[in-house]
C-alpha cells in the first residue's frame, strides 16, 4: 500500500507541475473577459440607443446596421452561463401536464434530476423509467433539452446533471473514469434497477463499463436496457479527425498543453482542469466557416428585421457557447483509454484495477444508434458494442443507422424526433417484460 501511495503522489506532483506551467492560460482568459467588461457594457447601451424607436436613426439602414454590429460584439465577448431547461409542461395522452424538475440524488460532481410530471389521472400507456446520461464533454446537460422533451410524453425521465469542475472545491477530491462509473452504479442502485439507460456520445463507454461491472457481480439493480447513441466504443472503426488527433499527438501532448488550474475566485480554485473555453475553441475550429456564416446571417437578419431567424440563432448559440470545465483526471484518462489505447474493445479496460469483461453482459438489452454523417463518432464505432457483448440474445439487440444526419442530429432535431426517438421508444417498450431470474 505504501508503494501505491508513493506512486500516486508522484503522479499528482507531476500533474500539478504541468498544470502550473499552463495556468497562465486560464488567468489570461479571465483577464481578457474583465478587460472587455467596460466595452461590452458600452456596446449594450449604444445598441439600445440605436434601437430606440424615438431615435430617427433607428429606422435607417445605418442605424439598424450599428445596432446589429453592437449586438454581435456583445454576444461574441459575453460569458455564457448555464442555460435553463425551460421544460415546464409536456403533452401526455393528449393532455397538457406540468413538469417539475427535482434533484433526487447528488454528489459533488453530479446531480440526478427527475422530470416529474404532475398527473390528474394516471396515464393508460406504460411509462418506462428512462435515465438519460448526458455527456461530460464540455457542454451542460441542457444540450439534451430536445432529447428529454421528446421522451417526456411517454417516459419517466431522469438526467445526470454534471457539475462544472471549476465550481467543485478542491476538498471534494479529483474525479476520474472510475469515479464516473461508480457514480452511474450508485444512480442505478438509487433507481432500483427498474429503468432503461440512454447514453449520448461520451458516456457510452462508462455506461458500458458500469454494465460490465454490474453483470460480473450479478448485481440485481442492473438496468433493463442500454441505448448507446453516437458513442466512441471502438474509435478504430472509421476514425474521424478527432480520433486521429488523439492518436497522432499522444497523451503527453494533452497533459502538457490543455491542462491548467482554475484561478481564484472560483470555488474550485487550484483544481487541475481541461477548461471549457479550450473545448469550445476545438468545437468552433472544426466548422469555423459554418459558424462565421451563421454570425454573418445573424447580422443580416437583424438589419432586415427578421426577428424569428435571429431568435433561432440566439437560442442555438446561447446553448452552444455555454461550456463547463472537466476535471483533468477524467479528461486525460478518457483520452488515453478510449482514443489512444482502445482499452475497452481490446478487453483491457480496468475499473479500480480489475479488468472488465464486456462478454459478461447478457441480461441487459442493447440498442445502438449512429448518424451517417457523424464527424465525431464515425460509423461503426457505436455498433462495435454488439461485438463486445456476444451473450446478449438476438431478440434483445437492435442497431439503427440514421441517414443524412451528423453527430448533433443523432440526439436532436426533426429526424431525431420523427425517426430515431420512436424506434428507441419501441425498443424500450419491448424490453419492459419482467426479467427472468
UniProtKB/TrEMBL annotation:
InterPro entries: AB_hydrolase_fold (IPR029058), PHA/PHB_synthase (IPR051321), PHB_depo_C (IPR009656), PHB_depoly_PhaZ (IPR010915). Residues 230-430 form the PHB de-polymerase C-terminal domain. Signal peptide: none annotated. It comes from the Bacteria. The lineage of its organism: Bacteria, Pseudomonadati, Pseudomonadota, Alphaproteobacteria, Hyphomicrobiales. It comes from Azorhizobium oxalatiphilum. This is Esterase. PANTHER family: BLR0908 PROTEIN, POLY(3-HYDROXYALKANOATE) POLYMERASE SUBUNIT PHAC.
Amino acid at each position: 500500500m505504501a508503494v501505491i501511495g508513493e506512486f500516486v503522489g508522484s503522479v499528482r506532483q507531476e500533474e500539478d507541475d504541468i498544470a502550473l506551467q499552463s495556468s497562465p492560460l486560464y488567468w489570461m482568459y479571465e483577464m481578457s473577459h474583465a478587460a472587455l467588461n467596460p466595452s461590452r457594457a458600452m456596446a449594450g447601451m449604444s445598441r439600445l440607443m440605436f434601437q430606440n424607436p424615438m431615435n430617427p436613426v433607428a429606422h435607417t439602414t445605418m442605424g439598424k446596421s450599428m445596432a446589429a454590429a453592437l449586438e454581435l460584439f456583445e454576444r461574441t465577448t459575453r460569458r455564457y452561463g448555464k442555460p435553463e431547461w425551460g421544460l415546464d409542461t409536456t403533452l401526455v395522452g393528449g393532455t397538457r401536464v406540468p413538469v417539475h424538475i427535482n434533484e433526487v440524488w447528488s454528489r459533488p460532481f453530479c446531480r440526478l434530476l427527475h422530470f416529474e410530471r404532475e398527473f390528474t389521472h394516471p396515464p393508460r400507456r406504460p411509462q418506462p423509467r428512462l435515465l438519460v446520461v448526458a455527456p461530460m464533454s464540455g457542454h451542460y446537460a441542457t444540450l439534451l433539452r430536445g432529447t428529454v422533451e421528446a421522451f417526456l410524453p411517454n417516459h419517466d425521465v431522469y438526467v445526470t446533471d454534471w457539475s462544472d469542475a471549476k465550481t467543485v472545491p478542491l476538498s471534494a477530491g479529483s474525479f476520474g473514469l472510475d469515479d464516473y462509473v461508480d457514480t452511474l452504479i450508485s444512480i442505478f442502485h438509487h433507481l432500483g434497477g427498474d429503468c432503461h439507460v440512454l447514453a449520448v456520445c461520451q458516456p457510452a463507454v462508462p455506461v458500458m463499463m458500469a454494465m460490465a461491472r454490474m453483470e460480473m457481480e450479478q448485481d440485481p439493480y442492473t438496468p433493463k436496457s442500454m441505448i448507446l447513441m453516437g458513442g466512441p466504443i471502438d474509435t478504430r472503426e472509421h476514425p474521424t479527425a478527432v480520433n486521429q488527433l488523439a492518436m497522432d499527438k499522444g497523451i503527453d501532448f494533452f497533459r502538457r498543453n490543455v491542462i491548467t488550474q482554475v484561478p481564484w475566485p472560483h470555488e474550485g480554485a487550484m483544481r487541475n482542469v481541461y477548461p471549457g473555453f479550450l473545448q469550445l475553441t476545438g468545437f468552433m475550429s472544426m466548422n469555423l466557416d459554418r459558424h462565421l456564416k451563421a454570425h454573418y446571417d445573424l447580422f443580416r437578419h437583424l438589419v432586415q428585421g427578421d426577428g424569428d431567424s435571429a431568435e433561432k440563432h440566439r437560442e442555438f448559440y446561447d446553448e452552444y457557447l455555454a461550456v463547463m470545465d472537466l476535471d483533468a483526471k477524467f479528461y486525460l484518462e478518457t483520452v488515453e483509454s478510449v482514443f489512444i489505447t482502445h482499452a475497452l474493445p481490446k478487453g483491457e479496460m480496468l475499473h479500480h484495477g480489475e479488468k472488465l469483461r464486456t462478454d459478461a453482459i447478457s441480461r441487459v438489452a442493447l440498442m445502438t444508434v449512429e448518424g451517417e454523417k457523424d464527424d465525431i463518432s464515425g460509423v461503426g464505432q457505436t455498433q462495435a458494442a454488439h461485438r463486445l457483448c456476444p451473450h446478449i440474445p438476438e431478440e434483445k439487440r437492435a442497431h439503427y443507422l440514421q441517414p443524412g444526419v451528423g453527430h448533433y442530429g443523432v440526439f436532436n432535431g426533426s429526424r431525431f424526433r420523427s425517426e430515431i426517438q420512436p424506434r428507441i421508444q419501441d425498443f424500450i417498450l419491448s424490453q419492459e417484460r419482467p426479467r427472468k431470474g
